[in-house]
Hints:
The protein is of the alpha+beta class and 558 residues long.
Amino acid sequence: MPQNWIYISKFLSFKEKIIFSFLILLIAGGIISWGIIAYFSLTKPVAKQGGSYTEGIIGQPLYVNPLLSQSSETDADLTQVIYSGLLKLGSGGNLVGDLAESWDISSDQKTYTIHLKKNAVWHDGEKLNADDVFFTISILQDPAYKSPLRYNWQGVDIKQIDDYTLAFALKKPYFGFLNNLTVGILPKHIWENVAPEKFALADYNLEPVGSGPYKFYDFQKDSSGNILSYELRSFENYFANRPHISKITFNFYPDENSAIEAYNKKEILGISGISPEKISHIKTIKNTAIYEISIPRYFSVFFNQNKSVSLANGEVRKALVCAVNRKKIIEKVLSDKGVGVNSPFLPQMKEYAGDIERCDSDIEEAKKILEEAGWKLNENNIREKDGIKLEFRFFTTDWPELAQTADILKSQWKEIGASAEVNVLTVSDLQQNYIRPREYDALLFGQATNLNPDPCPFWCSSQKRDPGLNLSFFGDDEVDKILEEARETLDENKRIEKYRRFQEIIKDKNPAAFLYSPLYLYSVNKQVKGLELKSLNAPSQRFSEINKWYIKTKRVRK
């Protein structure tokens, strides 16, 4: 070929040589382009092993333990990635098998037989079997271990049939029992020698051994003992195939601004639960996917009638609820990324009784309620009655959304003569020193229900004390009866009827000022693929199929 080119060049002028060379290059380029086009048309990209993902979380991990993690989103996030339950929420919003290969339900809806997968192992290599499930549920049911989940497992007998089969026998039918089976399972050989009084203090709460897609590797602390980062590695023996992404790291930040700064510096690839007004602070927004997810959770101000003398008065609670302008709060705090709520059920739920008339955003009506009940303004424009001032301590966390909401509520309540002293604390401080002992007059906090809601854990009187989740210290015999009966009612329409009466009582008693249900905004760099985030029960369940996420790709034949 080179000799032919030399021979031809002897007979071509300089200009003809240029033209000839150009034609040769054009033909070569066409062949290469055709080859590339053919390659891409005959192949497709698929996930490839490798890469690392780092996510920023606001807060600190404390209990990376499925039996204790319900009160902290940070703990729940880590627990979701490290542990496996019998069932989990699939990408379509339906419950699917996790450790369970299959399950059978008896005709009377009282017995659930679970058949375990036989290829599941713990992160330390030990086999996972029915012993571990039996052990986990047994200590969950034991009041000495103080699990917030205990209530849902009362009256459930567990029987181990063989190494991979268990039966759960309910004394009464419970429509939401399958949801209970999503709780993470603990390894018996790790926890069986940990005494109940040391359960919450064990090192395994920060150095866990699970059976999920990622296993604990290491964490880094600063000089003050705060955890800065928490590193996980893909579990090569994960029963649902090894995850694509090799390493997951969670970095912890004291506030949202710090997390966004780290994101802009490309130190992290995702931020857990970003505030609507902070989205504009992301500098690489074109390379960022913002997932807007509706999650069954709501934020309310819970009135502790057992702690505050003024809040023990029904007319005071009614006036406070009446004075709340939810629309203003949603506009200013959530940038309209949320919906207003005025009951323990959300407007999009079929259980929600939207036709019940409620007082909403009516300052004048709130004043009238207090005036008629004898609450008069003093020289400081604070209402008093029988020497009792309408004032109370109002606690919330240092999350920007909640701190801002608290300030707006304080202003709205001031208009009717109520004085609310706002106390903004870290999540861990609030949890340990105020929520658990119920040391607050009023609490602005969130409660996460699920797509198949059961309000009893939050509103039954049996749940007033820690680790129960009845944050209003609310007790009503009729409500207890209604909610207990609803749990046993398998007919959905009849259950909805009972829940309507429950909402009527809540409207009359006003144990809380229900505020809003925000959209969960999850920001992730677009290089992270494979996310299917449609219907979630809780923010942590965005990780329920994290083993399918990927960063690296390779091309294979179509």
